[in-house]
Amino acid sequence: MRFRSVHESAWPRQTGRVTDNHVPEQPRPDDALDGDIRLLGQLLGEVIRDQVGQHTFDLIERVRRHAVTQRRADGTGDIVGLDALLAGVDIDTGVHVIRAFGWFALLANIAEDVHHARRRRHHRIIDSPPRPGSLDYTVRTFRESGLDSAEIVATLAAVEVNPVLTAHPTEVRRKTIVDTQRRIGELLQLRDRTTMATHESDAWVAELRLL
After folding, report:
1. Is the pLDDT of residue 3 over 50?
2. What pLDDT is recorded for position 4?
3. DSSP 8-state symbol, 196
4. Which residue among 8, 22, 64, 162 is the one 20 to 30 A from 140 at the CA level?
5. Using CA atoms, how far apart are residues 210 and 97, in angstroms rounded to an integer?
6. What pTM did the predictor assign?
7. Do 3 and 61 form a contact (C-beta atoms < 8 A)?
8. Residue 16: what are its φ and ψ, rounded to 5°?
9. Among the listed residues 28, 23, 3, the one whose alpha carbon sits nearest the alpha carbon of residue 13
10. Reduced 3-state DSSP string for 82-117
11. pLDDT > 50? residue 11
């Protein structure tokens, strides 16, 4: 039993699966992301069990399973069912449940950031055409639409970029939290680019778990 995201995208996909015609499917671009999210979810579940007990972990799992079931059924969610699961839960346990899902969302975001970097690196390695969102892709699109170099330069020169700085209190995070997030991302990237021996992999997991 593992703690995973309430979102379907967080559920791991199996690579090399066999279809009805017994032909293995090719790995998907997001398989690595699913693996990272699965690993982070497993470690989070272990920490929850260690720190707040099996009972709270089981409650979190029931909530997660119910949410996933409802999302797959019709996407609306059964609020009444969730309310029944959480009825009578004391405040301390409720806080642990909320924090568990909050922390998982944060960990999933870190994994997604690492995956974006992974995909960009992959496309650079295989020398892919310019990717959507890049300046090269924008210029190429302008050229394909019939604009000449002077028109492209004029268009880009007229673009204004206005940064927006917010001071919303929910966005404030302690430096220790930010440093931890950064280190988790670094460890995921390290595993992604390094072939580890068994003892190195064990040490890697141990460091990630301690964060």
Report:
1. no
2. 40
3. -
4. 162
5. 20
6. 0.73
7. yes
8. 65, 30
9. 28
10. HHHHHCCCCHHHHHHHHHHHHHHHHHHHHHHHHHHH
11. no
Residue 21 has pLDDT above 80, yes or no: no
Which residues pair with residue 18 across a beta bridge?
24
CA distance linking residue 179 with residue 167, whole number of Å: 20
CA angle 66/70/73 to nearest 5° reads 140
What burial class does residue 169 get, using C-beta atoms within 10 Å of its C-beta: 0-12 exposed, 13-18 middle, 19+ buried?
exposed
pLDDT tens, residue by residue, 124-153: 898 888 888 888 899 999 999 999 999 999
Q: Are 108 and 5 in contact (CB under 8 A)?
A: yes
Task: Read off the tokens for 57.
Answer: 């972990």
Rounded to whole angstroms, the Cα distance separating 46 from 37 reads 14
Mean pLDDT across the stretch 202-211?
91
Three-class DSSP labels, the chain:
CCCCCCCHHHCCCCCCCECCCCCECCCCCCHHHHHHHHHHHHHHHHHHHHHHCHHHHHHHHHHHHHHHHHHHHCCCCCHHHHHHHHCCCCHHHHHHHHHHHHHHHHHHHHHHHHHHHHHHHHHHHCCCCCCCCCHHHHHHHHHHCCCCHHHHHHHHHCCCCCCCCCCCHHHCCCHHHHHHHHHHHHHHHHHHHCCCCHHHHHHHHHHHHHC
3-state secondary structure of 27: coil
Tokens of 138: 């924008």
Angle between helices 91-125 and 175-193 (to 10 degrees): 40
